[in-house]
Amino acid sequence: MTATEDHQVPLVDPPRSVPTALRIGALLGGKRNQTAWGLLAALVAPIWFLLNDPSFSPIAAFAFLGPTTEVQGEVTELIEGEKVTFEPFAVDGNGYEHYMEQVEILGIHYGYKGPDGTPLTGIARGLRQGAHEQYTEVGAPITVEYANNNPERSRVRGLRGEGESEEWLLTIAFWAAVVFGAAALLSVLHGIAGGAKAVGLMAGGALTEGRLTLAAEPTKIGNAVLFRKLEYVFSASDQQARGSVISMRSDAELSEEPEPIFYHSANPSRMIPVGEIPCYMEVDPRGNLSEGDSNPYNNLWLPTLCCLAWCWFTFSKLGLIDPP
Hints:
Layout: E1 2-3, H1 20-28, H2 31-42, H3 44-51, E2 68-85, E3 90-91, E4 97-98, E5 101-113, E6 119-125, E7 141-147, E8 150-155, E9 160-161, H4 164-204, E10 206-215, E11 219-221, E12 224-236, E13 239-247, E14 259-263, E15 271-273, E16 282-283, E17 289-290, H5 301-317
Parallel strand pairs: 1-16
Antiparallel strand pairs: 2-5, 2-7, 3-4, 5-6, 6-9, 7-8, 10-12, 10-14, 11-12, 12-13, 14-15, 16-17
Helix pairs in contact: 1-4, 2-4, 2-5
């Protein structure tokens, strides 16, 4: 926060006007907030794509985590792979050569009955030579396990279901997108709440200088600071006051030098350092807040894109617009 003159220009007394550009910067700006808006917009695509795949269910892969039932089924069809023809092992009296062929059995189709007696079917792959010979004939008995809450979901222990690996991959991708989207949404809401607090203090609070007295050990993911508590001491109405904020600033962004602080005159503990407000501001020669040469309107692009993407997603799921 700077003044446009070489000397410090006093800020006008509250209530003061906060320019629209500063409000937008405070509510939507900041590198972390913009990253969260962008991530939230980008995650519409995988979530929409998976939810519109009729063969995909977000919870189907977890069916066997619940109660199951084992029933007796039978092999109905063999899934054959490569055929290997060996050298002739015999020649009959007419000169015809007899060959031996070996067919690789890749998997089986099987049938079983659900809890109400309804005939159901399934596919299992991954048969191993020397371990599953009892399944390589049509009509062979086989033990089938199905999920009680969805009897059509079945498996044969020791074998893998049709598309099981792909199903788990897509399920993990979907829930990863949901988790990252939820984290991005929380980050966005945290930024908006902090920005609203900042706008309120810029409009109605007093301005002073304070010093950082304690920076708590941050909670991190890798080298990125998720949050930490910062405590400040500052002068408020000729008395010493203390306040704290939850910050996402790294060690490199903190300083022991005096920092401008907005605080509520009636409740000094309600404060915010200017370094926590995600926009650039100046005090013009008349003592009013100004955005200076900055352009906080650039912060509107990603939030607008995000809102349009999620509105389109919502309307398409409600059937109000046609999907592409």
